[in-house]
Every structure is written in C-alpha cells, then in structure tokens.
Specification:
With 707 residues, this protein is of the alpha/beta class. It contains 24 helices and 23 strands. A hairpin with a 2-residue loop joins β7 and β8.
Length: 707
C-alpha cells in the first residue's frame, strides 16, 4: 500500500507527479482509496433509433460503412493522397440496422483511420450530441464486441483538465486501478476486528475494495460501499470519542458547586421568562461546571435564540464561586454590543464588567489590567485583545468564545493558558451558524454539544421576499413607508473580499443611488465598510444604533450580532452571491423588536439554478438548522464555512456527511459501545483498531487539548 505509484505498470515518474499534484495521490494505497463517484452501466446496448441527444452516455453496437477525412477548411481529403498532418477530423458513419450515427474524432486520427475499416463492427460508448441534424458522438470509446466491456458497471473517477490533456483518461484510470488492485489485494490486512464484521454484517475489506472498483452487480456494489462508508465513519468517531474520554478523565477542572447571589439577582430581575431550551442548556452547563472536570461545551443556537443570556448566567456562576469569566467576540462592534447588553443584565448584581478591544486607550488598559489582577473585575468582554500577554487574571475560571469558527486554535490555546494555578478554565464555545447534527458530531465529536432550538417569546417571524431588478422602485417606496412609521433599514452589499475593486465600486454606486432616492434633510443615510478606520465605522454604526440615521448601507460587517430593535427592513443586494448561512445571519439582524420585519433579497438578472435554489430555501423557512441541513445537501459539508473540507478532522474518501447521516449515527453509537467496554482499546480483540488509530491521519489534529 505504501509503494510509490510511479512503479505501477503504465504510470512512471511523469504521470506520478501529475497524479500527486492534481489528486494528491502518491502511493498505491492512495490510488486504491480513490473511489468512483458514479458508475456507468455498460450492460445495456441501445438501438441507434432510440438514441436521444439528452441521454447522458449510451452504448451502441454498430458496423462501420463509411469513413471520411476532413481538412481544417472543412474540405474532404481524398484517401489516395493522404497526409495525416493535414487532417483536422475523422468522420465514421455507422449503422445497426435501425438507424445511422456519426462518430467524430479530432485526435488519434491515424490510429482510428487504420482501425475503423468499413464492414467492421464495434461497441461505441459516449455522450450523444446533435450536429447538422445528425446524432453523433465525439471521441467515443471504441471496443471490440468481445472485449468484455459490455455487461459491467464501470467506475468513473475524479479527474481534472490537466489529467485528461496528459492522456490520463477514464479508461487509463481504470487500467491503473486494475494494476493497483492486483498488486495490493493479496497483501491487504483487515482493518476491523472479526467481531465487528460479524455484529455489523460487513463484508471483508478485500471483497469491498475489489467490488467498489469493479462491481459484479448492484448488490455487490451496495455491500462494498456500505462496508467502506461504515469503516470510515466508525474509525473517525472512535478516534474523536477516545480523545474525549482521555480528556474528560485527565482534565481537572474548577469545581463550582454554588450558583451564587449574583446569578440569582440577575435571574430574578429578568423582564421575561427564559425558554425551556435556555433553561435546559444552563442546567447542562451547570452540571459540567460542578463535575470537577474541565467543561468543553459547544453551544449552538439560531440567530436571536438567546445565547448571550445563557453566556451571562454561566459567567455569573463562575463569579459566584470566586472566579472570573471572559467573553471573547470576533469583532469590535460585537464586543461593544455584548458589553452594552451585559452591563444592563449585571446592574442588579453588583458584578463589575470591563471592555477591552484594540481601540481601548492606554490609561483605560492600565485600569483594566489592575482590576483583573486584584479580582475587582468579574467579567471581561473583548476581542483578540484578551489574549495579549499583558492581560493577566487573578482567577480565570470560565472562557466563553463567541462565533468559534472565526478564531484559530492557537488563539484559543492562549486564552486557555490564562487559567488559575495552571488549571485550564471551563470553556463554552458559542456559534450562531446552525450546524447540521451529522456535521456537529464530526467537527466537534470530542466536545459536548448543547442546542438552543427554541425562540424567545415575542420574536415575530421575518417575512422574506425575493425580487428582481424590476421591483427596485417599489422596494424604495416600501422603505419610505417603513421610515414614515419610525423604523430603520439595513441595505447590505456583497463586498465578499474587502479588496475587490468591482464590489467596492458597487457599494459606492449603491450608496450614491440610495442617497439620491433618500435625500437630505428628510432622510439620513450612514455607510459602514471594511475600508474605513475603526473610528469612522464606530461613528456611522452609532448613528444608526442611536436612530440618528434611517438607513445603514453596509457590507457584511454587520452579519454577526448587531442589535437594532428598531430596524424592520433588511435589503440584501445581489443576494445570489451570498451563501445560505450568511443570508440567514443577515436576516437575523431584523425582527428583534416588537414590529413586523422584512428581509428583501434583491437578485441580479443572471442567477444560476443553484443560487435560485438557495434563495427559494431562505424564503421557505426561518429555521436555521433546517437551512443548514439543506445547505449541506446542496454544497456538501466542506463548504459550510467557505473552505473545502477545512473543518473536518480527517478528509473523507467515500462517506458523505450530507447523505450518510444514518450510517454516521450507527457508527458513533457502536464506537461509544466499544469504548464503554474497552476505553483504551487494550484488549487483543481490538488490536487492529488501536493500530488504525495510531495512523497519521487520526493524530494530525488533537482537538482533545483545545476546544
């Protein structure tokens, strides 16, 4: 399995280099684990009379009766004065008695001309198209009738333009795979214990590898596919759960038995009841914090579900036990907002909070540092400034990280090291991007996951509309009506890359258009984007939050956490350019007050099918978890945060988190059952599992040290 691929028959150094750079394949084992993404059924021979251009790929058995060669200018070349370098295409007319078809070749003309003799019969396989009122195939595969290609399922492998141009076609890949299997199958070691195969009804690994590449029929393919998917997900979950077990056994945490007066004072003063989901999550966090083990919990909640309230009450549990807490937010705007909201909640408690960001003055910093070191500041709220070396707590017992995906693991580790007496603080990671259950189990398999799946009472649903350019005038009138009622509006432009000149121009043009449509003195328009200084941003944002501006024109700076209860309209320009989770986050900026709110998706004139599907989904549901599940089905798991497979602890070769949720559930349950019986996998029966988990891919990211 570890042999370099260049030594396989038909590969060599050049092709090996290309396969490495294009598909990341460097060993025979890598090649064998490159699975077909679909299969072509070569068991059906289609009559030429039944071939339609809309069919994907077809196979016909036909006899050649006319071959013609054409020059670049389209003139037919006479066979008696033939020079192959003058030929630009070969046309072969074939017939099976029910009709005629043309086979066209632009490459390999000499070889095809010598092969396709009139009167000879072949099996032609390819994609039918129409040209000049005649159905044809361009560069079909050509096989002799007795070659054994018909009657089998043929795998189609991932490829790239570069590979195809270098002659590594689908056919060549199949040949290489056949050679690789001949090499490795006799030596393949079973990776799963005998009892696992028996209990889960799985086929042996050698059978699975043979049948996944060269299936004898659909049933064999199904068994092979299930075995390989189960193994992949099972080993991944086993590795994550084992890390979790080791961590929970080793990680000593602060034991916080009391709830404390500050918690009770804050809770009693709340102007509304917590939802059942919020209460359940606080109970889960409380159990963790009193267990004596370090808490590592992921808190998932949809936009506006009340995560901040849970964070405040959790922080007050830490304060009530004599510790400090910190809340780290990804942006200055969000940190300031958290500070403003949390300060209100803390009024009845007497607990002192402070805000530390990049723009905090030196004098204020000195005060904060002193307050942290003498313990008079109970809760510190801030941005990355919290992890600077100069920030020292007297007794940090709880670290809360908002919007986890925006912080690197190293940054979070620095916060971790600020714990009291070398003991790491309890960690609560919050995310407002709802993550599908299957993905959460894999990305955060070694964290405990809490979900707030209920909205606070009084939050009105947001009406979502998707409209085209033709309705722009009507949209402006609608905003005027809302402003007349005393409301405010967001207008967001897709400045996806802050440096993108075109987008920046769009934002500026859009701003000019809005100022024209909403002129002074009747209307005031503020603008916020990434090219402004922190002071400019803060000034404009404050004008909108305080109600001095009616409209805020902005980029996605406002995606996370900006809370303006009086804003009732969110217009998203070029909505087709945003991802689903981003659109959902933006929509969550309205509907925070008592009034009815609207999200208007303005789409461009050219919208792809995929983008339209996203927009339709957003109009259809407000449930972030539902949207996340659908988004994963549309785009696959890797792209949820915009980078392919970036979050997955290992890359998956055959299983799909979007489609194989049931197998994942089963695999995780079974992995937990095995670890209950043998937590460190030391029994002889589990020797093969222990050996698998020692492989590099399971060691590459140890999440067990850092949440």
């Amino acid at each position: 399995m570890d042999t370099s691929i260049q030594y396989l028959p038909g590969v060599g150094p050049k092709r090996a280099e290309l396969l490495q750079s294009e598909l990341g394949i460097s060993t025979v084992g890598d090649l064998v684990r490159l699975y077909p993404f679909r299969y072509i059924d070569r068991s059906v021979i289609v009559r030429i009379a039944d071939v339609q251009p809309e069919l994907a790929q077809v196979q016909v058995k036909a006899t050649v009766f006319k071959v013609r060669l054409f020059a670049k200018n389209g003139a037919e070349l006479p066979p008696e004065k033939l020079k192959y370098n003058a030929v630009s295409r070969l046309s072969a007319i074939v017939s099976d008695g029910t009709g005629e078809m043309e086979m066209v070749f632009f490459k390999g003309v000499k070889w095809m001309h010598e092969r396709l003799r009139p009167g000879s019969t072949f099996i032609f396989f390819g994609k039918p198209t129409v040209f000049g009122n005649r159905i044809n195939m361009v560069h079909p595969e050509v096989d002799a009738p007795d070659s054994g290609t018909s009657g089998v399922l043929t795998g189609v492998y991932p490829s790239t333009e570069k590979l195809k141009n270098a002659g590594i076609t689908g056919k060549v890949m199949v040949r290489m795979m056949s050679a690789a299997l001949a090499e490795v199958l006799p030596t393949v070691q079973e990776t799963l214990p005998e009892y696992v195969l028996k209990e889960k009804g799985l086929v042996p690994l050698t059978y699975a590898l043979r049948q996944i590449h060269f299936p004898q029929d659909q049933q064999a393919l199904g068994k092979a596919s299930y075995r390989l998917k189960f193994e992949e997900l099972f080993l991944l979950q086993l590795s994550l759960l084992k890390q979790k077990y080791i961590r929970s056994r080793n990680a000593v945490g602060f034991k916080m038995e009391a709830v404390g007066e500050a918690f009770n004072a804050c809770y009693k003063a709340l102007p509304y009841d917590l939802t059942g989901a919020q209460k359940r999550v606080i109970r889960e966090i409380r159990e963790d914090m009193r267990s004596g083990h370090q808490m590592n919990r992921l808190l998932q909640g949809d936009v506006g579900s009340g995560k901040t309230m849970v964070a405040v009450l959790s922080a007050l549990i830490a304060v009530g036990n004599g510790y400090q807490a910190c809340i780290m937010a990804p942006t200055e705007v969000l940190a300031q907002q958290h500070y403003a909201n949390i300060s209100k909640y803390l009024k009845p408690t007497g607990v002192r909070a402070a805000l530390l960001t990049g723009t905090t003055t030196a004098a204020r910093r000195r005060e904060i540092h002193a307050g942290l070191e003498d313990g008079s500041i109970g809760i510190l709220i801030g941005t990355h400034a919290l992890i600077e070396d100069t920030v020292n707590f007297r007794a940090l017992g709880l670290a809360i990280i908002d919007e986890q995906h925006r912080f690197g693991v190293e940054q979070r580790a620095r916060l971790w090291n600020k714990g009291y007496m070398q003991i790491p603080p309890h960690v609560l990671v919050m995310t407002a991007t709802p993550i599908p259950r299957t993905l959460a189990m894999t990305l955060y398999g070694d964290l405990d996951v809490s979900v707030i799946d209920e909205m606070p009472p009084g939050r009105k649903p947001v009406t979502t509309l998707c409209v085209g350019e033709g309705k722009r005038h009507a949209m402006h009138n609608f905003i005027r009506d809302e402003i007349a009622k005393g409301r405010q509006a967001f207008i967001v432009y897709p400045l996806i890359f802050e440096s993108e000149k075109l987008d920046y121009k769009n934002l500026e043009l859009g701003y000019e258009e809005i100022v024209k449509a909403f002129p002074l003195p009747q209307y005031k328009v503020a603008i916020v984007h990434g090219q402004q200084s922190a002071q400019e941003k803060a000034f404009n944002m404050d004008a909108f939050v305080a109600g001095r501006a009616n409209i805020l024109v902005s980029t996605t700076v406002i995606e996370v956490g900006v809370d303006v209860p009086n804003a009732s309209v969110m217009v998203i320009e070029s909505a087709e350019r945003f991802g689903l989770s981003q659109l959902h986050q933006l929509r969550g900026r309205v509907g925070r007050g008592a009034e009815r709110s609207y999200c208007i998706l303005m789409k461009g004139n050219k919208v792809s099918k995929e983008s339209q599907k996203r927009l339709d989904l957003l109009v259809a549901t407000e449930n972030g978890f539902e949207l996340a599940e659908e988004d994963m089905k549309l785009r696959g798991p890797g792209d949820l945060e915009g980078t392919m497979q970036s979050g997955l602890p290992i890359s998956l070769n055959i299983a799909s988190l979007a489609k194989d949720g049931l197998i994942l559930n089963d695999a995780r349950g079974y992995a937990a059952h095995i670890l209950d019986l043998d937590p460190m996998l030391v029994s002889p029966a589990n020797a093969s599992l222990a050996a698998e988990l020692k492989k590099d891919k399971y060691q590459s990211r140890d999440y067990s040290r850092i949440s």
